[in-house]
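Let us work through a complete example step by step.
Step 1: write down the sequence.
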Amino acid sequence: MATSPTRKQVTHDRILQTAARAIRRGGYGGVGVADIMKEAGLTHGGFYAHFPSRDAMLAAAIERAGQENAERLSRHNAEQARLGVHPLRTLVESYLSEAHLATPERGCPVAALLSEMPRQAVPVRDASRVRVRALMQRVHQAMPDATVEQARAVAATLVGALQMARALGGAEGKAVLAACRQTLLDQYTLSPQRRST
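Step 2: predict the structure and record it as tokens.
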């Protein structure tokens, strides 16, 4: 029989959800304990009942962000698989979509945070590496006939394209997404289908 979560568990989850959105929206450096607690509707003083430090919260937040993104992608993949869409096509079109471009706070934490990862404290760097490896693994699962090196190259292209598109913004950013989307689909000879934006 399932038990209801405790009040502390519910509060902990609210902090993590808030932090997971905040790091993708504003980067690691843009996330302060007081701001997270305020956004979560909690007092600053209650933070240390849940995390020993800001870095511990950031490490947990990137893990949560990765889990949320993986769950979203898995649901989308399952829907597309039922329609007979190749898993790599689904991944490429979803990752390099205009919706993902416009909503970093709900998207892939690797694309949102990659350039900041090497400069973080060890626990945050370690948690970040786990997310990068998970993305590469997801890409490899979508292209099982490819080598590990090819999957890594595709993963790097996805992340780099999204980062460049966000940096450029507007029509120019969308053009980068479209070009990379088309190039990846052409390179891996996926049959033509209607492409999402």
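Step 3: interpret the result. The CA atoms of residues 98 and 163 lie 12 Å apart.
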